[in-house]
Amino acid sequence: MPNSPVWDIAIIGAGIVGCACAAAAAAAGLRTAVIESQTPGGGTTAAGMGHIVVMDDSPAQFALTRYSQLLWQEWAPELPQGVEYSRCGTLWLARDETELRLAVAKQQAYRSQGVPAEMLDAGALAAAEPKLRPGLAGAMLAAEDAVLYPPAAAKFFLDRARAQGACLIQGECAALAEGGIKLRDGRRVAAGEIVLAAGAQSTGFMPGLPIAPRKGHLLITDRYPGWLHHQVVELGYLRSAHSLAEDSVACNLQPRLSGQILIGSSRQYGATSAAVEPGMLARMLQRAMDYMPELAQLSSIRAWTGFRAATPDKLPLIGAAEGHPHVWLATGHEGLGITTAPATAALLLAQMTGTPAAIPAAPYLPDRQPETGEAHA
Amino acid sequence: MPERVRVKVNGRELEMPAEASVAAALMSAGVSGLRRSRTGEPRGPVCGMGVCMECRVRVDGRAHQRACQFSCREGMEIECR
Fold this sequence. Notes:
The complex is a heterodimer of chains A (377) and B (81).
Chain A: E1 6-12, H1 16-27, E2 32-36, H2 44-47, E3 51-52, H3 59-75, E4 90-94, H4 97-112, E5 118-121, H5 122-128, E6 138-142, E7 146-147, H6 150-163, E8 167-170, E9 173-177, E10 180-183, E11 188-196, E12 212-223, E13 231-234, H7 237-242, E14 248-255, E15 260-269, H8 278-291, E16 300-310, E17 317-320, E18 327-331, H9 337-353
Parallel strand pairs in A: 1-2, 1-11, 2-8, 4-13, 11-18
Antiparallel strand pairs in A: 3-7, 4-6, 5-6, 9-10, 10-11, 12-15, 12-16, 13-14, 14-15, 17-18
Helix pairs in contact in A: 1-6, 1-9, 3-9
Chain B: E1 4-9, E2 12-17, H1 22-28, E3 35-36, E4 42-43, E5 56-59, E6 62-66, E7 77-79
Parallel strand pairs in B: 1-7
Antiparallel strand pairs in B: 1-2, 3-4, 5-6, 5-7
């Protein structure tokens, strides 16, 4: 189209990953456009918990989440109040002696990588979170984990990008085209490079991508200030997050700065409807109440669902799209998109501009070979 | 005369009609502003039928109880903030 600008980079999707990539691209001096048909940060970003968490399902996941957590810490002083960034820490709960041994192994793994982690015995855990039921064996505290409000964080990145010249194009992408993107209303966005950051919807533009939607439920309570102090997650969460086939739930509770408590989590494959499923919600709440029985006394405000973009090896796709020149991927973040958005943006921009990255990019490249064996956690 | 019960409102003892909703009883006793919003604005009953959530008070230690949805009981302790 004559007279329309040619962007250096056009990013499909203004979720937190797309917005973080836009901020990084604009900061690098690239003419950047972000294309979004809905409210920026209003999709899976808004449906998620906003837990900035180091996860150790694999060494590559550990490296990416920790690197990104440190990037969040650098952003922290600049985040507006509405982002509600709070370094509350995560308590990984051990039910019994078996899980306690897992927690100790986890602590050693964290410490060997320079990530602060400490063990709490049963008494210290009860003092830290008095609403937990008695009889738990202990917990590992990851004190540098944090929480934030994801749509506000996405908006923060988008605002930064726009302040440095990036443009938000409101429109629905129809297809990738030669030298740009075709929008559903007939417009064409011309761009030198395209970044696909559409989460679970990415396969709509590139059907071969190894991404499947994985549905999750969340529920939020009314305000009960002082009720909960840390993000509280059962160690079994790793199993729930790791499982590729079965529907699963895990106790995962988050204190909001408002005093509200966010209750998760569930994971389902094959679910296509976004409707809240009472049976799944009940399982999830029962699991949460197994750890904090008094949750049953609290009023809930709302329950909702979202779709994570899950890959087979539970690592995101960050880098050049195989067989698609000038198309780059920043998608497939499953439940860690909020945590790893800053690292994703940094790794992607390093590849696009041919500059060195802070951590090896190989484990997240879209054309990586699948790892064999070595499943754990 | 309707049966009357004694309740405490913010520590002050009041006599209320037993069949009145807590919201109605508080209003008839001249208590306005049942709670404060997150930004500090006073809030009180709007719909009177359990939908608007504006009349929440603390009852016998339980937070966020809708005052329009239950009756006064002898010895009930109500906190409006």
